[in-house]
Amino acid sequence: MQTMSSYLQRGTVLTDHTFSVPLDHDRPGGEQIEVFAREVVAAGRAAGRLPWLVFLQGGPGFGAPRPHGADNWLGRALADYRVLLLDQRGTGRSTPASRQTLARFGTAAEQASYLAHFRADAIVRDAELIREALTGGEPWTVLGQSYGGFCTVTYLSLAPGGIREAFITGGLPGLDATADDVYRLTYGKVAAKNSEHYQRYPADVERARQVARHLRDNEVILPGGAPLTVESFQTLGRMLGASTGSDGLHYLIEDPFAAGGLSDAFLHAVQPHLSFATAPLYAVLHEPSYAQRAATGWSARRVRAEFAGFDPAPALDGDAPLLFTGEMIYPWMFDIDPALRPLRDAAGLLAERDDWPALYDAGRLASNEVPAAAAVYFNDMYVPAELSVPTSRAIRGLRAWVTSEYEHDGLRASNGTVLGRLIALARGAA
After folding, report:
1. Kind and range of the H or E element at 21?
2. CA–CA separation, 214 vs 303, rounded Å?
């Protein structure tokens, strides 16, 4: 472990840590990678002995949040804990996994073999090594948001002795759900979110059609070099599952044209929503994050064919509304995005891999003794409640709070309310 100097930030003390961990935990003497984590503690309590809380970020493929003092949920956490914001392997300041770093491999098969070590089971084993280094072996509290909740359920399956309490928000996976099961539910939810959006912003029906027709008839290149196509424009619907996502999508498309073409302002505004340059692992590992002992086979593409409403043709050629898609990864993304193109063949190999290890242990979860609580968002567009509620019942002692008050980003949007409720539930105070 390497610890950098500490620094102050708006009532908090931050300390940067870097840990060396095996790429393959089954070969501890093999290649090593680095995992970065940022410790945060309230300034007045920095010298005190506090229990640790490790935060597992959503994704996969995103680094931990970069704090601005004790903002949103972090303020509630710092009242009780010393917090560790973990950049899961391959993300943030941890050893990166991107087109630049993976170029050292001679073949797509070698790239795929390397990337197969970046799923939830490896993240949990990293966390256990880090816990031993920081706490001296004492268990810590785990807070998992979205994919971080998936990782937390894997943690409860593989190493429950390392956990003092477990809090999960918008991240209870179906224990035996396939990627096909997930997408058959989420496509329907995305369609409902489209309907709600167009009811809220009826003028967007025609605006979206106009943009799509322009893209059909013209070659448009985003500032990052990728073509903007009808299909890629549709993926802006990934925004619709957040608390302010519908508003954000409306503002993106409310004034897209200038001098007969799409404006520079519009293209620059949509660029960060469509590029995977900041999170290539999100695209590469999204479907494999669901895989257990079976191939995903580009599930989102296959299942989309079962939902005719997402075909853009009726909007392009008629008066039907254009339906935006959601948190789905398609193989064409690896053809057009410069950040993904060099990883296309490796992603294809991962989509066909059929020997993924199991991520969840139903038997161990059924005998769970770790105090646990989970927020299940009834209208969650990304993690369907239809899968989360049965899992909440399958984890012994877990107390579930099923609510329609918040969307998937309730942890952040509630400014600490959701975390406070989970803490109270796990401790029997609510």
Report:
1. strand 12-22
2. 27
Up-side HSE of residue 24: CA atoms within 13 Å toward CB? Answer: 9
- At the second CATH level, the architecture of 2-176+360-426 is 3-Layer(aba) Sandwich (3.40)
User: Which pair of tokens denotes residue 314?
Assistant: 């009726």
Cβ proximity of 336 and 232 under 8 Å: yes
Q: Give the DSSP H or E segment for 11.
A: none
| Range list of H helices, 3-105 | 73-78, 99-102
Cα–Cα distance measured from residue 320 to residue 322, given in angstroms and rounded to the nearest whole number: 6
For residues 387 and 149, what is the distance between their CA atoms, to the nearest angstrom?
A: 13
d(C-alpha 54, C-alpha 85), whole Å: 6
Torsion angles phi and psi, residue 144, rounded to 5:
-120, 125
Angstrom distance (rounded) from CA 168 to CA 374: 4
Domain spans of the chain, in order of start: 2-176+360-426, 179-352
Q: Considering only CA atoms, which of 152, 128, 153, 124 is closest in space to residue 139?
A: 128
- Reduce the DSSP state of residue 35 to 3 states and report it: strand
Single pTM value for the model: 0.96
Peptide bond into 312 cis (omega under 30): no
254, 25 Cβ separation under 8 angstroms = no
pLDDT in tens, the chain (430 residues): 787 779 888 899 999 999 999 999 999 999 999 999 999 999 988 888 999 999 999 999 999 999 998 889 999 999 999 999 999 999 999 999 999 999 999 999 999 999 999 999 999 999 999 999 999 999 999 999 999 999 999 999 999 999 999 999 999 999 999 999 999 999 999 999 999 999 999 999 999 999 999 999 999 999 999 999 999 999 999 999 999 999 999 999 999 999 989 999 999 999 999 999 999 999 999 999 999 989 999 999 999 999 999 999 999 999 999 999 999 999 999 999 999 999 999 999 999 999 999 999 999 999 999 999 999 999 999 999 999 999 999 999 999 999 999 999 999 999 999 999 999 999 998 8
Q: Point out the residues that are catalytic.
A: 146, 355, 408
